[in-house]
Design brief:
79% helix; mainly alpha; 9 helices; 2 domains; globular
Length: 211
Amino acid sequence: MSKEKIRALRLLITGARILSGIFIPSFYPLVGFVILLTATYMSLLPWDFKLMVLAAVYIFTVAMPWFGQKAVQRIYGWTHHEMHMQHNRATAYIIKIVCYICCLMFCRNMNLPSFMGAIISVSLLVNCSCVIFNIWHHVSAHSAGTGAIIGCIFAYSTIFHFNPLWWLCASILLSGAVMSSRMLLRGHTLSEVLGGTYIGICCGIIGIIFS
């Protein structure tokens, strides 16, 4: 293989690692809340209230799952790779599910609008579905997360009656890029990323419409 091809391959792998590192599913609920609190009528709320909500969402959906997984790794002596092996992945998902349930309870106790709690409901539904499907077939959590974005956009467009064409195009391109990065890094096969995407789309639609 020529030096040019090797250099191009290294750049491609580096780009895939960056893409996988940026679009981590755990951050999607927090990003969704940031958008709702800055780009909708909820931007009129006091900053101290918005910061409190964002801090709580960060604690429940990012910090607590991370510390929980680290605690399990320390207790069982698992490495990062062992923690994410198919027969151990259910443990990480269960930790997330418990944390997301706590976050959903927080949203309801704070009387936040249902369309905000729906973001947590979608994430909860995605994680529950991944636990079930991973019993038979390994699926990509990254792909499920981007698929959920597609499903949420479609569901919101039917509820609020807006044209989602450009948003859907952008989310589909993002989903394709994330799926490609996961396969390029040999983290998942084609069937695993496609399965994750289908799960995410269904969970996004169901979670928004029925929340």
